[in-house]
Amino acid sequence: MPAPAPVVEIACDESGFSGTNLLDPVSPVIAHAGVDLTEPEAAALLATLRSRFNHRRTAEHKAHLLLRPGQDDAVEWFLGELEGRSSVHVVDKRDHLASRVLDLLSGAPSYLDGTRLGRDHGVSAAVLRGRDDVLAAFVAMTRLKHRRRPDPGAVDRFLAAVPAQVPELVALTRADVVGVLDRLLDGDPAVPPPLEPLVPALAETALRWSDGRRSVAVVHDEQSALTPQRTALLAAALAAAVAPAPPPLLGVRQVDSRDDPRVQVADLLAGWARATAMSVA
To answer: Range of 160's domain?
Structure first.
């Protein structure tokens, strides 16, 4: 019998999560960070930030402390300490939405959607990315919380906005769209949540640390988007896609970030990465 694959525990947090408000211009990206540190290593790193760079002592170290003016030395030191021990995955929310329109409505939705193992929609996604009307109509149509049935008016507005340059969508009927939305409302486990970029971001972090040779156990700051069902379905989809390589994601354990210095370090890194991505956008 072959030996079990090695397992690495990665602590994660995000910056820029905005729920279903994916078109908020103030928060155009979400950054998901993972760190491969022990708790004592992370605690020592935070202690050095407090003592060496005059970061005040609080119950939780937050990213804004690194982003204050005059923190260049602190940032350089912090990133140097994490070299080879960290990862960041940045998601442009408009790109996410454009691809999710196509993933959800043209073909079979999958928990691989939005990851390196999913479909590449190429030109069609690029067209949709530039169409605020289509993206806004899609968000309104798929925001189904507290609803029993899809909103017919929202479906009609989305269909009316579909551009002719996207052949995958032009033949859609109301019945086609309502059928997919009904699956979402019924909790069909095969259909991933289209407005949750944190789910594919988690997948990318697991794939990065797994690297086809080991499995990843994730410790994550508490996030309502990462329900046990979703993370289990994501783990199963990733395992099936890469077999016979080790399953990339073993599971997700959510913690209060105040109780885990590794997650606080991941939060600092995610906040810095998000601010950097926004500054160069």
So the answer is: 93-185
Q: Give dist(CA 86, CA 102) in Å, integer.
A: 32
Closest listed residue to residue 149, CA positions, set 174, 181, 101: 181
> Residue 24 domain-assigned?
no
Please indicate, yes or no, if residue 121 is contained in any of the structural domains. Answer: yes
Q: Summarize pLDDT for 109-131 with one digit per residue, the tens.
A: 999 999 999 999 999 999 999 99
pLDDT 10s digits, 155-180: 999 999 999 999 999 999 999 999 99
Residue 177 CA to residue 147 CA, distance in Å, equals 16
**Which residue matches tokens 């030996």?**
3
Is 229 a domain residue?
A: no
Tokens at residue 2, please? 């072959």
Kindly report whether the global pTM for this prediction surpasses the value 0.85.
Answer: yes
208 in a structural domain? no
Amino acid in position 26: V
In this structure, which amino acid lies at residue 39? E
The full DSSP string for the chain is: -PPPPPEEEEEEEEE---TT-TT-TT--EEEEEEE---HHHHHHHHHHHHHHS-PPP-SS--GGGTSSTT-HHHHHHHHHHTTTSEEEEEEEHHHHHHHHHHHHHSS---TTTTSTTS---HHHHHHHHT-HHHHHHHHHHH--TT-SS--HHHHHHHHHH--TT-HHHHT--HHHHHHHHHHHHTT-TTS--TT-THHHHHHHHHHHHHTTTSEEEEEEE--TTS-HHHHHHHHHHHHHHHTTSPPSEEEEEEE-GGG-HHHHHHHHHHHHHHHHHHHH-
